[in-house]
């Protein structure tokens, strides 16, 4: 059972999506939910069907006290590395909140302080706290929408399905067609054994 964080009253949950992808941005969201917010479907975005994620996205946007969503794109990921890019995306999402939170709860175990606001890192927090789960839904759905959009430019990589993750199909397409401007150049796009066959 997911729970609300009781104190302090203005708690922002934050999470990112796309950290392990070979292509596309890393996307983060931050959400402050009303204290009495409840939804039986809300959970870690990875545990929910796409159709339910999309309906939850609309509920969260309509009912959250405040939310923010931010991308960090490939060039910046390559420049500062994916961990720093993930944290930067979360910071940018928090900056968009209409009211400054009193406390931040973060999915995972790495974060850099944001202004002078206290924070807690919570491993698998998207399955424990409603505001983190809500942030995971927004980050995942907005990033998926972006990947479906750029799929139209490069349909051979099938990003509408794999969303840029390193599936066999995605790597096969990289072998056949090479990389695109949407690929992260600092990532190992192909395993070493595949590189030898190029």
UniProtKB/TrEMBL annotation:
The UniProt record lists the RNase H type-2 domain at 9-198
Q: Which CDD domains match?
A: RNase_HII_bacteria_HII_like
For this entry, the protein name equals Ribonuclease HII
Co-factor: note: Manganese or magnesium. Binds 1 divalent metal ion per monomer in the absence of substrate. May bind a second metal ion after substrate binding.
Co-factor requirement: Mn(2+); Mg(2+)
- What family is this? Belongs to the RNase HII family.
Q: Which HAMAP family match?
A: RNase_HII_B (MF_00052_B)
Tell me one GO biological process term: DNA replication, removal of RNA primer
Predominant localisation class: cytoplasm
| Entry-linked InterPro entries | RNase_HII (IPR022898), RNase_HII/HIII (IPR001352), RNase_HII/HIII_dom (IPR024567), RNaseH-like_sf (IPR012337), RNaseH_sf (IPR036397)
Give the catalytic activity. Answer: Endonucleolytic cleavage to 5'-phosphomonoester
| Pfam families linked to this entry | RNase_HII
What NCBIfam families does the annotation carry? PRK00015.1-3
Question: What top-level branch of life does the organism fall under?
Answer: Bacteria
Q: One MF term in GO for this entry?
A: RNA binding
- Function statement: Endonuclease that specifically degrades the RNA of RNA-DNA hybrids.
Q: SUPFAM superfamilies, alphabetically?
A: Ribonuclease H-like
Q: Which GO terms describe its cellular component?
A: cytoplasm; ribonuclease H2 complex
Quick check: keyword Hydrolase in the entry? yes
- Subcellular location field: Cytoplasm
Report the EC code(s) recorded for this entry. 3.1.26.4
What positions does the entry give for a divalent metal cation binding?
Answer: 15-16, 107
